[in-house]
Design brief:
Blueprint (H helix, E strand, L loop, with lengths): L1 H23 L9 H13 L5 E4 L3 E7 L6 E7 L3 E2 L12 E2 L4 H17 L3 H4 L2 E7 L7 H9 L8 H7 L8 E7 L9 E3 L2 E2 L1 E10 L15 H15 L10 E8 L10 E10 L2 H22 L2 E10 L6 H11 L8 E3 L2 E2 L5 H5 L4 E6 L2 E2 L8 E2 L2 H33 L6 H11 L1 E5 L4
Parallel strand pairs: 3-6, 3-7, 7-16, 8-14, 9-15
Antiparallel strand pairs: 1-2, 2-6, 4-5, 8-16, 10-12, 10-13, 11-12, 13-19, 17-18
Length: 439
């Protein structure tokens, strides 16, 4: 079977790379990946694969089924790009660019799926394999997404959160995915068992009283001053953050006032609280809210604090990781595999890792800076062909011998949350509190 799959990979690889690089040059933001969706569906049609293409607006799921007993393995990728102001290939509708590598992730997971289908491996093995393309991994474009929520088109701001709510993963047993490694990881060809911070999204609105900034500032309440007091208080809190919790609190002031000549009566801050554990996120959130309220109280402003469920920390499944690593070692030397790193970044793969055995492998072959204006594919073999090969081998390994290895993973796996508990956590997190000025 291995030889048959490698032959199929050799046949389809150029078509897969062509598709992925076309997506790279035509980036779209989350829940807007309509052209990306069409490109993927076109190639699924070419290989006579049925699919559902409107899950969570632009999400895609295609399944090949042996009609025999066995685990259901998901080959998962992300469709969206990153907001950007300067890139060779900016989006046609929004300022965005594929500077996170999701375009290549599509190629790897779709290429693996098609190669396995063309080699007819499930006829010999059993079980199911699904290609799943998820929208809106990048947590951004808030006004657009908030409007989608208001229009009842989505309930949550992330593609995987929304697809989980829509039961797209309820029949899945194991999740395999990949992500571009930072090009700065020179000398390494793959990365295994990395972990990611989780994060909480916050939108804070300080409300004051506007008046002429030169003539009568004493008659106003300066919302920007309230925000600055609060942000300074957060800075003084940083010494209380534990190193092992890998905490980041970062923000942008998305509205700072109507004009210089008027006392600002409305200031809006978009903020992330990141940390390695859910408990640490909750602890820092309590401290940050206290600082926000303190800034408003000091100046006499109102403050509205809106929390939205960000992403849970990524915790990869050890046993599934070992199986993927064993198959990477068929193609890569041990010293070329980076192991056990932790990143302060976040991704909604973390949400799935609380529900299902999940692996996300780091893939090399890129140049430039992650989320930078120079990110691009440098080595197509490393970025596409190599990971397709070891993911295909991994699926075979999991399903051979009556899915012995996959079943061993599943028999010992204990989810951190049930699907119902996860949705409850999201709903409990999505809350708004208003604190009125004390005069």
């Amino acid at each position: 079977m291995q030889e048959a799959i490698l032959d199929k990979i050799n046949i389809i690889k150029n078509r897969i790379i062509e598709l992925s690089e076309e997506i790279y040059t035509n980036p779209e933001l989350g829940f807007k990946e309509f052209e990306t969706n069409k490109l993927i569906c076109k190639i699924l049609d070419e290989y006579n694969l049925s699919y559902k293409s409107d899950i969570a607006i632009t999400g895609i799921k295609s399944t090949i089924d042996s009609k025999k007993e066995g685990p259901h393995i998901a080959l998962l990728c992300e469709l969206d790009s990153v907001p950007s102001t300067d890139h060779t290939y900016l989006g046609k509708k929004d300022n965005c660019a594929h500077s996170c590598g999701h375009y290549a992730q599509v190629g790897v997971m779709l290429g693996t799926f098609i190669a396995l289908k063309e080699a007819n491996v499930l006829d010999k093995l059993g079980g199911k394999i699904s290609f799943i393309g998820t929208p809106a991994e990048e947590y951004c474009d808030f006004e657009y997404r908030e409007n989608l929520v208001k229009e009842n088109k989505i309930s949550y701001m992330s593609g995987k959160q929304e697809m989980i709510k829509l039961n797209a993963f309820n029949d899945i047993d194991l999740v395999l995915s990949c992500h571009s490694m930072p090009p700065s990881y020179e000398g390494y060809l793959s990365e295994v068992n990395s972990s990611l911070n989780g994060f909480l999204g916050k939108k804070i609105i300080f409300k004051g009283v506007s008046t002429h900034a030169g003539f009568s500032p004493c008659d106003g309440v300066n919302a920007l001053n309230a925000a600055n007091v609060a942000l300074n208080a957060i800075s003084y809190l940083r010494e209380t953050f534990k190193e092992e919790d890998c905490i980041r609190v970062h923000y942008v002031i998305s509205e700072g006032g109507a004009g210089v000549n008027s006392v600002p009566d409305r200031v809006v801050i978009d903020m992330y609280i990141r940390a390695r554990t859910l408990d640490a996120i909750k602890d820092v959130d309590t401290k940050v809210d206290r600082a926000l309220r303190g800034g408003a109280l000091a100046i006499g402003a109102d403050v509205e604090i809106m929390n939205t469920g960000g992403y849970l920390p990524l915790i990869q499944d050890d046993k599934l990781t070992e199986i993927v690593k064993d198959n990477i070692l068929k193609f890569v030397e041990e010293d070329k595999i980076l192991k056990d790193c932790h990143s302060f970044a976040s991704g909604d793969m973390g949400d799935l890792s609380y529900l299902l055995p999940t692996v996300q492998i780091g893939v090399s072959g890129f140049a430039g800076r992650i989320h930078g204006n120079d990110f691009r594919t440098e080595d197509k073999y490393l970025a596409y062909e190599l990971p397709i090969k070891y993911f295909a081998e991994t699926v075979l390994d999991l399903l051979e011998n009556d899915a012995k290895k996959a079943n061993e993973i599943l028999s010992n796996y204990k989810p951190r949350l049930t699907f119902d508990e996860y949705i409850k956590l999201l709903n409990d997190t999505n809350k708004t509190n208003v604190y009125n000025a004390e005069v």
